[in-house]
Structure formats: C-alpha cells, structure tokens
Amino acid sequence: xxxxxxxxxxxxxxxxxxxxxxxxxxxxxxxxxxxxxxxxxxxxxxxxxxxxxxxxxxxxxxxxxxxxxxxxxxxxxxxxxxxxxxxxxxxxxxxxxxxxxxxxxxxxxxxxxxxxxxxxxxxxxxxxxxxxxxxxxxxxxxxxxxxxxxxxxxxxxxxxxxxxxxxxxxxxxxxxxxxxxxxxxxxxxxxxxxxxxxxxxxxxxxxxxxxxxxxxxxxxxxxxxxxxxxxxxxxxxxxxxxxxxxxxxxxxxxxxxxxxxxxxxxxxxxxxxxxxxxxxxxxxxxxxxxxxxxxxxxxxxxxxxxxxxxxxxxxxxxxxxxxxxxxxxxxxxxxxxxxxxxxxxxxxxxxxxxxxxxxxxxxxxxxxxxxxxxxxxxxxxxxxxxxxxxxxxxxxxxxxxxxxxxxxxxxxxxxxxxxxxxxxxxxxxxxxxxxxxxxxxxxxxxxxxxxxxxxxxxxxxxxxxxxxxxxxxxxxxxxxxxxxxxxxxxxxxxxxxxxxxxxxxxxxxxxxxxxxxxxxxxxxxxxxxxxxxxxxxxxxxxxxxxxxxxxxxxxxxxxxxxxxxxxxxxxxxxxxxxxxxxxxxxxxxxxxxxxxxxxxxxxxxxxxxxxxxxxxxxxxxxxxxxxxxxxxxxx
Amino acid sequence: xxxxxxxxxxxxxxxxxxxxxxxxxxxxxxxxxxxxxxxxxxxxxxxxxxxxxxxxxxxxxxxxxxxxxxxxxxxxxxxxxxxxxxxxxxxxxxxxxxxxxxxxxxxxxxxxxxxxxxxxxxxxxxxxxxxxxxxxxxxxxxxxxxxxxxxxxxxxxxxxxxxxxxxxxxxxxxxxxxxxxxxxxxxxxxxxxxxxxxxxxxxxxxxxxxxxxxxxxxxxxxxxxxxxxxxxxxxxxxxxxxxxxxxxxxxxxxxxxxxxxxx
Lengths: 635, 263
Hints:
By secondary structure, chain A is mainly alpha-helical. Chain A has four domains: 2-75, no CATH class; 102-334, Cytochrome C Oxidase, Chain A (Up-down Bundle); 335-570, Cytochrome c oxidase-like, subunit I domain (Cytochrome C Oxidase, Chain A), CATH 1.20.210.10; 575-635, no CATH class. Chain A contains 19 helices and two strands. Chain A has a two-stranded antiparallel sheet. Chain B is α+β, with helices and mostly antiparallel strands. Chain B has two domains: 2-69 and 86-116; 124-252, Cupredoxins -  blue copper proteins (Immunoglobulin-like). In chain B, strand 2 and strand 3 (145-148) form a beta hairpin. The longest helix of chain B has 33 residues, at 38-70. Chain B starts with 6 loop residues before the first helix and ends in an 11-residue tail after the last strand. In chain B, 38% of the residues are buried. Chains A and B meet through helix 6, helix 12, helix 13, helix 14 and helix 15 of A and helix 2, helix 3, strand 7 and strand 9 of B.
C-alpha cells in the first residue's frame, strides 16, 4: 500500500484528486471565513467552493498519476530517474491504463477514449431526437433538453472529433515520417490524460444543482454568465480540453519540423502530415482564444469581472468575436486532418499518385490563412457593425476555392487508376466526397449575407453543421479508423460488417440531415425543445433517420471489439500502400524502427517503375524492386 | 490525358443532371410564403444559388460516377494505375473557375443586401422589447404606447424595428419577411422591413434564450395604414419605465447599415 502511494499510478492519482479537491475547497472556505464572508456562497453563478476544486481536483489527479514526475524532479534539482523505457510501449493490456509515453499507446488511448465519448454523445442525440419526434413535450422537460443538446455538441466537438484526429495522427504520423516517437513523449502523455478529465467535467455537470450547462456549445454571454453552476463545469472543462489540444499541436509541429527521416523534404511528406501541420498551426494560435473566452465567462460568473455584463459597461457582442475567432478555425481543426486521411485512403485504393500533390498541400495552407479571416460570418445578424459583413462574406466564399481544389484533386486521383472498393475505408472516403460537397454547398449559401439573414439560427444551420461534421469529419474518422485498424491492432476487421455499417451510416446521415435543411428554411428555429405542429411529420422522419444512424453504430462497435480480439492476423501492408507506416510490422515494434528509414521519393509513387518512397533498415538502395516491397513484416 | 476522356459526353451529362435537379428544386418554395419586399429578392438569390449548386453537385457526381464505372479494378487485378501526378492547366482551371463563381455570388449577394437594406423616406419606427420569454412593442404617439405579445404594422411602408433586449440575447425573426436580427442587451440594433402582404404572422425568437426559448412568440398583423392607425389609437398602455430607459440608454451601434444602402 505504501509503495502504491509512492509509485505514480491510479492509487496515487486518486489520492492526488482527493487532496486537490480538499486543497481547493479548503482554500476557498478559509479565505472566505478570514474575510468575514459567508463560508458557502451559493448564488447560482457562484459556488466558488465547487468551482475551485473543479480546477485543483483534476490537477491533483494529474500530479498523482505521474504526469509531472520527471519535470518536477528536474525543476526541483533532484536527480531524475534514468530513462529505462519502462513507461514506453504496451506489453499487456494493462499498459494502456497507465501513464505511457509511447505514441502508439497514446494513439490507441486517444481513439478508444474519444469513441467512448462519441457513444455517450450519440446517446444524447438519440434522446434529443426522441423528444423531437413529435411536437409537444414528451420525454424531457425544456431545461433538461437544453442541457442535452449543449452537452451533446460539447462532447462531440471537444472530446470526440478534435482529439480523435489527434489520436489517429499520434499513432500514424511519427511512423509516417520515420520518427521513433513524438518530439515530447511526456508532454504527449500529459495531453492525453487531460482529455478524459475534460469529458468527465462536461458529463459531471448533469450532477450540478440546476442541471447541465444549457447555453449551447457556443455559451453566448449573458445567457452563460447568468446560468446555473453547470456552466462553470463547461468553462473549466474547456480549459483541460484546450490545454490538451494546444500541447498536442506544439508536439506535432516540433515533431514534423525536426524529426522527419533523412530525405523526407517537405514536398515528400504524405498529405496526412501536411494536414496535421496545418491543423496544428490553427490550434496553437486559435485555441487560446476559446480558453480566454471561457475564463472571461468564468470570471464574470464567479469574480464579477463584468467583461460581458452590459449594465456594468461590458460588451455583449465581444464574446462572440472572441469565441468565433477560435471556433471558426476550429471548424477546420475538425476537417483538415480528415482531408489528410482521405488523401491517404484514396491514393492507396485507387493505386494512383495524388493528383496535384503540391496544390493539395498549398490548399491546406490557404485554408489555414483564410480561416482566420472569416469568423464574423457567424454573426451576420448578431448586431455587430454592419460594414464587417461584406468583407467577411467575400473571404468566406473564397475559402470554398481551396476546399474545391481538394475535392477535384481527389476526383482527379481516381482517373486512370485501379479503384478498389473492397475496403470500408475507401467506401467512406468516396461517400465523404459526395456528402462533404453538399455540406460545402450549403456553407457557400450560408456565407451569402442575405440568405444567412433568413436561415441563421434555424434548422438549416443544424443540417449544415451535421453535413460537414458528421458527413464530413466523422466519415473521415471512420475511414481513418478502418484504414489503420490493421496497423494499430495487428488484426483485420470484418469487411462485411464494415459494409453494413457504411451503407447504414450513409443512409441514416442523408435521411436525418437532408430534411433538416427544409424545415429550417420553412421557419423552424434551432435549439428548441418544442416546435409548431406543421413541422411534425418531417421531424418524425428525421428522428427515424437518426435512430437508424444510431443503431448502425452498434455494428461498428461490435466489429471493432470482436475483430480486435478475434480478427485474422494482419500483414504488415494489407492495402499495399507506399507510406512508411506500412513498411513495418502490424502492430509496429515498440521503438518503431531498428534503424531510421531513408526517404528517397514521394509518398504516392504508384505505377512509377522503380520508384521508392523509403528505404528501410537492412535494405540497400541497389536492391530496390519496382513493385511494392513489404519489409519488416512479421513472418 | 484529358483527351482520352469523353469530355463532351461528361459535360452533357453534367448539364442534363443540372437541369433535372434544378427542374425538381426550383418549383418548390423553400422559404415558404413571402410577405415583404425583401422576400422575392432573397428567394431569387437562393434560386440562382440552387442552379449553380446543382451544377457543382452534378459535376462532382458525374466525375465520381464515371471514374467508378470506368476505372474500377477488375477482381484480382493487383497492378497500379497510371502514374499521372497532375495537370497544371486542369489545376489552374479548378482554382480559377470556382473563384469566379464565388466572386459572382459575393457581388450578387452584396447587391441584394444593399437593396433590401436601402432606407426609405419617412419610415415607421417601432421599438421592440425582448425579454425572457416575451415580446412587446412600443409605438410613436403622443406618449409612446405599448402592446404586449401583438404587433401591428402598416402595409407597404418601411418599418425600422429598433430592437432592445432586457436580459439575454434574443433574435427577431418573421420567416415570411426573411429578415432576422439579434436583440442584444446594452445596444440598440435595427431591422429594416417593408411588409407587402396583409395577414397574420408569427414573430419567432431564434437565439437560444433559456428554458422558454421554444415558446417565445408574438403575433404580427400586417394591415392597411388606416386600420393600423386605428389599432395604435386603441392602445391605452404606456411603455413601462425600464423599457423606456433602455431606449434612452442603449447605444445605437448601427442605425442605418453602413456599407449597404445608405452609405
């Protein structure tokens, strides 16, 4: 027991959590007692004796769990524990449940954790659609309803879509660039462990007096500054999710810039690497803005700082500017990594080099630059100065151009290829092109001020964001998970079940989200627990679509779990791809490479006689064969 | 490379598909009934966008469909495709043509925006008060008169709605008018509408404002000027003091939209 408390791990983590909560609680209570104030302040926006422990408790857990051990010893001048790689790699399933610095372990931890939140958020969506299946109030009261859709969005955005991409890239990206790990493995582990804490804070808000945060995922002031305690759970949770995101982005940037294998110039990087480079550039600069916005709301609530309190000279609209300055780039944070995945999958399964590789990379950078200049298109009717609308409209519409380049280049990649559609990953990639095109089209319409004035804050918006985030991002996530499942688990998944999942998801997505456009244009506002009876039939149809969509995800869950345990063993390179991660065994060795590979060509040289992307250890350039070689497979 | 593709046939298929999609979609009145001078302009913009979008969608579908039909690997074929890395002229084309299309869309939208926000001579000013979870309205008169939950406006005269929020953000939307604007605490915002069809409509709050958001509605009656004047005369309540105060205190950020119409 005593040794368990001394060793980093779950027991010390739990102890740290308890001590952290006690410290925060004690600090607030004693300071208030000394100051002669009521010891417990229970205004609904107050509860400092709960809000401070919400911050110190998770920090205590991270300290106890061992996330800071090495740095603290170093900072305190104590002898650091010599690196014996005992925290690196997974020898048994237990190693996935501790502080682990191996990017492959962390990648799996990320993907599994985020999918747990995906299913919880999905269940909330089912409740939302059950309530909306008929006009009137049947299942939940309006207050709970507002909490449900807010939490649904927050779980899906902050602890599913954004971090699941970080997880996939964590696993794949160091292998792709021929690196033994990420640049900062301990920071990487810390990034991961902040994430479940954020998710638990979001879900935990349901236990707060007054219920879960219910001001939407956007948390507009002053609705959020005056909301019950649950809102503070959101404000604090975003800090952990945001810090996790920023640290990971820094890690990716340094890894990509400094740790590429010899010969891997920027123009030889796979597009997934380019995509994560672009995404990380967005995250490091934009995410601090949402962290700031949520701190300002938290301070307004607990410390009465009056940033957004109009009666005290605050400015209400400024919240939206700060919020969207992050949250519009966030749309691309949730999409660019998916673009990378689609490029890998389509090139591999069409057996063709990516069409216009350099323009594809430049389009990503173009999106990064433009995405910082479009945020106010979320505010065309918000009461900001009206001259800002036209320039924001022009940049918004222009950002469709680099996005269009990507769509056309993927289509171009298919031409004169040998398209294989046996893999579920490829099916999702192809369907993504169609579904995302629809989402892009409705996005262009929304970018036009006169149309936006009419459909802003209606179900048209709900339809658009689900087409780009579900039909877009989530389709690419499924493509990525199916594509790298053999690499990550060393097993093959069941393609038959994969196809059931694919067709069900495609059908469900269209049935659910297409009619939402119509009811929105026809007058149904969003974020409503109830609606006019004229929309009843369409909503019933939408709910049916949502239930199909929800049910078919269970097929995916079953396929993943059963295949991971019982699936046939995967070869090193089942898709016959060229990038480096496929040239090592499935799953890869604990330290990735015996010897760092040498990169000698582009990543997608399908059909080019004699072309090689990388020369792996134990090979010499002279023995290079024209056909794809699978080296290091576990024979 | 392009020469080996049936470009003419693909283009014909794209245009045919565009025509079919447009023919199905254009007759439908997506935005519902229109009842303001802005409505037909916005609806026409939408129709133009539907045709352009139908073309883009058709192009993607034809390109994808042809590729899947023509270049699908035969079972057992493990060879690679042709090592084509790109085509500069094609890449320039699909950069420049979409740029032109979206810039056209931006210009057209700007023109429509200017048009629908063009301030008229002698508009009627109506104060709109939004609070959790009700609407009320102040009218110019001897002393400002007040109506709760029901708003009347005259036919064919431009109305400038001055929006005030007492607690949180609300949003003013009459779907038939196509015009929406947030009511923001601390500032006065303006919505410009010229109703051109008599009738009874619903004013809907579209910004999440709390538990009662879904039911925050008011009745809007558009009627001939004489009837409207009679209705205003019949109002006997005065605008309550706190609302009056917000009219005086709120800063008017943007009385006449700059950049549109009046600039």
